[in-house]
Amino acid sequence: MNAPATSRELRRDSPAPIARAEDLLAWPMIQRLVGYDTTSRDSNLALIDWVRDYLRGFDVESTLTFDDTRKKANLFATLPARDGNTMTGGIVLSGHTDVVPVDGQPWDTPPFEATAKGDRIFGRGVTDMKSFSATGLAFVPELLRRGLDKPVHFALSYDEEIGCIGVHRLIADVVARGVKPAGCIVGEPTGMQLVVAHKGKMSWRCRVRGHEAHSSLTPKGVNAVQIACEIVAYIARRAREFRDHGHQEPTYDVPFTTVHVGTIKGGTALNIVPRDCQFEFEIRHLPFDDPQAFFRDVEAFAGTFIADMHAVSKDTYIAFDHMSTLPFLDTDDSSDIAKIGHRCNCGTGVGRVSYGTEAALFYHADIPTVICGPGHIDQAHQPNEWCEVSQLAACEAFFGRLADHVCVKA
Length: 410
What we know:
Layout: H1 27-34, H2 45-56, E1 62-66, E2 73-79, E3 91-96, E4 115-117, E5 120-122, H3 130-138, H4 140-146, E6 152-157, H5 166-176, E7 183-186, E8 194-198, E9 200-209, H6 224-245, E10 258-266, E11 276-285, H7 291-303, H8 306-312, E12 317-326, E13 329-330, H9 336-344, E14 350-353, H10 359-363, E15 369-371, E16 386-388, H11 389-406
Parallel strand pairs: 3-6, 3-7, 7-15, 8-14
Antiparallel strand pairs: 1-2, 2-6, 4-5, 5-16, 8-13, 9-11, 9-12, 10-11
Helix pairs in contact: 1-3, 3-11, 9-11
C-alpha cells in the first residue's frame, strides 16, 4: 500500500505557516482515522486492520493483542533501525484508538467525519486523540526513507476511555517479547506542551443496604439514602481539607489532591424508608499523597454507622467495591525522553496535569514517558470537538524535529 497522498512536501527548513487543513501533511490520515467510529462500546478492528495494512505496505509488520471477545485489539509495530535493530532503544509513539460516545450531543458536523472550517477541524477524536497518531503514521515514509538510527515503535490501544484497559495487554506483550524502548511519547492533548507528570486516580463504589419501613415509622427502618449522604458529606469535608490544608504542588493545573462523588442513586418512593443506595467516588492524587490512606479513612467513617444499623436489622451493611486504579506519572524532567521532548517542541517548558493517561502505565513498566499532543483537553469529549490547524501544524513540526533526532545523520 502506498502512503496517503499529501498536499505538500516534507520540509525541515521552517516551512511557511500552515493555515488550512488541506496544507497539512497528515490531513488525509486524520480524515481516515476520524472516519472510523471507534466508540469504546464498539469494535476498533476496522481502524486497526487499516493501520496494519497501511504499515504492511512499507514492509512493517504489526503485533495485535486482543480483548477477550476478540472484537477489539491493540496494535504494536516497529520501524526497524537501519542496522535491523527492532528490540532495544528507540521511542514508542503511543495513542488510544477509542473515543467517547456522541449520543445526545448537538453536533453541527458529522461526528465521524473530519470537517475543516476556517482554522479549525471538527470531529470526534480529532483532539482526543487520533490526530497525534495520524501525524505519526503520516511520517512513516519519511522516517523509512531517511533511515532510522534507533527503532520507532507505534502503539495503538483500545478502551483507554473506560479505564486504560487495553494498554495493559499491549505493555505486557511488549515486555514478554523483550522489547526495551528507551522512552515513550503519549500524544494526549496538551496544547503541544511537554507534560512530565500527572496525578494518579483510584475510584470506588459504595453500596449501602438499609431496611425498608413505612415513612411514618422511620425508627423501624434503616435509611440507606441518608447514611450514604452522611458518607458523601464526609468525603466532601475531606476534599476541602485537601484543598485548604493538604500538600500543594503549584506546577500542576490543579495544585492539590481532589476528591469527587460522581453518581448517587437510591430509594423507590417518598413514603418508603429506602433500603438501598449506592454512589461512586474517586480521588485524583498528587504523587506524594496516599489514596489508600484516604480510602481507609472513608471506610472507617462508614463503619461508625454499622452498630446502629444492626440494632434494627442484621441484614444491613455498607460495602465498598474497588472500581479502578490509574497510577501517577512523574517523569524526571532531566531524563533523556524529556530532553528529546524539549528539543522537539523547542523548549517551551513543561507541565503537570490533573487528568490521567496511559503514560503512567508505560512509566510504571520502566519505560520513561512524557505526554505531548495537539489540542486541549477542554476541547475533548464535547459536541463539535475541534482542534486548531495551528496545533496540528505544531505537531507536524514536532515530528519533523523528532525525525531529525531519530534518523541517521546525513
